[in-house]
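Query structure, 172 tokens:
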């Protein structure tokens, strides 16, 4: 069997620039490049000093002769009160357009599955933009994922989070 032209490995602190480059690539694909506020310093702090999330990278070449990063899967763990088990939440998955259709996305999901099994996760969850039909097709047809159409995502940011202060209970 021929060896793969790329490999998957966990990101290290030395990869923050490559991670940011891939995230900007994802944001550009999603027509939201102007919304990226992350910096190498924030990734260094929040992925490696205090690891709120984890990143897998797809790298051209081999572990002995690595090339550039061509894909990423950034994830963190959550918890399901219904299953009583942890879950894996995939925050972002991106494959450089020049490397799509070569199994990179499948390989990243295979590694995510390995992590989920090792951590006894009940499920892997993620979101996909409604207009992103190529990704939806990949998730449903190739991976066998189930669309969660009865759920709607919600978000609070910045001043909206600060606005929650008005609901705090006062201590006696």
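Result returned for the query:
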């Amino acid at each position: 069997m021929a060896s793969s032209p790329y490999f998957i490995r966990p990101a290290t602190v030395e990869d923050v620039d490559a991670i940011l480059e891939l995230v900007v690539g994802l944001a550009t694909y999603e027509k939201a490049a102007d919304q990226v506020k992350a910096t190498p310093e924030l990734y260094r702090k929040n992925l490696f000093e205090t690891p709120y999330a984890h990143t897998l990278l797809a790298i051209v070449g081999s572990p002995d002769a690595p090339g550039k990063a061509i894909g990423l899967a950034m994830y963190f763990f959550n918890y399901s009160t219904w299953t009583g088990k942890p879950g894996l939440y995939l925050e972002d998955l991106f494959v450089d357009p020049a490397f799509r259709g070569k199994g990179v996305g499948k390989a990243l999901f295979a590694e995510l599955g390995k992590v989920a099994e090792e951590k006894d996760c009940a499920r892997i969850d993620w979101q996909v933009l409604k207009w992103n039909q190529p990704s939806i097709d990949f998730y449903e047809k190739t991976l066998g994922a189930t669309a969660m159409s009865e759920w709607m995502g919600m978000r609070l940011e910045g001043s909206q989070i600060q606005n929650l202060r008005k609901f705090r209970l006062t201590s006696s």
